Amino acid sequence: MSKEYFGDRKKALEESFFARENEKLLAQIKAERDTHEIREALAKVSGIESDEILAKLCALGIDADTWTAVSIAPLVEVAWADGKIDDPERQAVLSGAEANGITSDSPGYQLLESWLAHRPDGRLLEVWGTFIVGLCAELGESERESLKQQILGRARSVAEATGGFLGLGRKISSEEEIILAELAKAFEV
Q1: Shortest CA distance to 107 belongs to which of 58, 150, 69, 80?
Q2: 128: enclosing H helix or E strand
Q3: First-to-last CA distance in the chain?
Q4: What is the DSSP-derived secondary structure letter of residue 85?
Q5: Which 3 state secondary structure label does DSSP give 1?
């Protein structure tokens, strides 16, 4: 066999190897770019600024769409606690959703509108709670506490939107207190 034959084979082998390596590197670059874009979108809708928490949420497969459901389900449940939604509660839910980056032209907003018009299935809180329990098992104590404060703070704002008489008295109904307690329980590990 000639040196030329081996030289050609050697070159083909090298090109094949480096082509595969380039494919791997390109795939890795694309995955990193996609992850970065997912993290940015998640940061925008969640308001979470901690890179550590965002990285952990992304690693768990949570994206902006998932976060939309995670963030608005508690608001809707609190608003419906007494069986009806008053206008101030509706506005508080919409404000909470807007704070999570849910705009009027997004699918999340359309879902929210339908939940405000017609009470969602009673399993929503159960499914949300199961999801949060699983998520909290993956988070550290400070991350879990931060998430809890953010979600429960917005839910409490909805509960405080109506109630009392002329701004006096108890603003949160007993039904809303029950829902808030159920929400808080989901964060206990």
Answers
A1: 69
A2: helix 123-138
A3: 70
A4: -
A5: coil
Structure confidence by residue, pLDDT tens digits, 115-143: 899 998 777 888 788 888 888 888 889 88
Tokens at residue 91, please?
A: 């506005």
Contact 139, 147 (CB under 8 A): yes
| Distance (Å, whole) CA 70 – CA 130 | 11
Cα dist from 101 to 39, 46, 97, 109, whole Å: 14, 7, 7, 10
Predicted model pTM: 0.67
- Distances from the Cα of 61 to the Cα of 48, 54, 68, angstroms: 16, 11, 14
Cα–Cα distance for residue pair 35/171, rounded to 1 Å:
42
Q: What percent of the chain has pLDDT over 70?
A: 78
Q: Residue 185 and residue 178: Cα distance in Å, rounded?
A: 11
Quick one: which of 74, 75, 69 has its CA closest to 108?
69
